[in-house]
Amino acid sequence: MRILIAPDKFAGTLTAVEAASAIEEGWRRRDPDAEVLVAPMADGGPGFIDVLSAVVDGTLLSVTVRGPLGAETPATVLLSGETAYVETAQACGLHLVEPKQRRPEEATTYGVGQLITAAVDAGAKRIILGLGGSGTNDAGAGLLAALGATAESGQLDSGAAGLAGLTAVDLQPARDRVAGVEFVAASDVENPMLGLRGATNVFGSQKGITDERKPEVDGWLTHFAELADRKTADQKGAGAAGGLGYALLLLGAERVSGIDLVAELTGLKQKASQVDLVLSGEGAFDFQSRDGKVIAGVAKVANDAMRPCVVLAGKVLIGSREMRSMGVESAYALVDAVGEEQAFADPHGSLAAVAERVARTWAR
């Protein structure tokens, strides 16, 4: 039996690399002679550098940057020739701030600009940025400030709230700082930055922006866009990572699918063609899994190779009809198999146990 294990992270419990290890361990208990290929995945959010550093021939550059609320935080840039890979969540991720301490209207992407600066100073001519998992909603103003952009009667590096009183914005110093550098924004989000489908209204709640505050916060971003470039705010992906996509588009970035990029770099298509079964997984297999996320991407690759795809997840929150529309044959939930308490207490052991159960059904 030949299998390919290609999971996403199990948010808050296991990295994609750890999840792949647990699945392989459990499968081999039932089928010790299996030929196993492993390809941990990411869609641009947390885990992006962790996954790519295993397959890209490069070196890791350690950097200390400003976190979303100003505290210094360690981060890394993956350098491969003149290409640099940046995981924006390392500088502005939601996971960097404890839930009770979150102040989303003040959170800044300044640290992402510092990561870009480090990459440029290291000689990068092409920077690929994974977008996702952000705790910020500042339209990428902080990033632009770190690169040299200036403003009048406001602050670009103080979160969305700092944009309220702006009277003018000058982006030229930022563009000059990265002149000649190609940017690629890897993201699963196609939303524009403003309005009902924009960053604030769609993703603000998960960052701590209340429904009552959303109109005003969206108004701040609209005001900033009117000073910077209103048309770009309507482009696909401008709303990614709280408007971080917008700032990158202002710098001329090309937007690509995060999962497609990672799949290409990890050789997922080739690996899928060599196996009998593809296994994927994530913390919650739900309706959001359809929209450019890892499972949807892995399932498509498996289907293109005419191989069945099975999902192992912390929770399974969609029905069989929706699964099959994505190309997933079956899904198994940790909470159903071992209980929610055990799944969180011992995620590695729980995932391995479910993988062993899956092998009982699918191993030949």
Automatic annotation (TrEMBL):
Alphabetized GO MF terms: glycerate kinase activity
One of the Pfam families matching this protein, by short name: Gly_kinase
InterPro entries: Glyc_kinase_flavodox-like_fold (IPR018193), Glycerate_kinase (IPR004381), Glycerate_kinase_RE-like (IPR018197), Glycerate_kinase_sf (IPR036129)
Keyword list, A-Z: Kinase, Transferase
EC number: 2.7.1.31
Gene3D superfamilies from the UniProt entry: Glycerate kinase, domain 1, Glycerate kinase, domain 2
Domain of life: Bacteria
GO BP field: organic acid phosphorylation
Membership in a protein family: Belongs to the glycerate kinase type-1 family.
Record protein name field: Glycerate kinase
Organism: Kribbella shirazensis
Lineage: Bacteria, Bacillati, Actinomycetota, Actinomycetes, Propionibacteriales
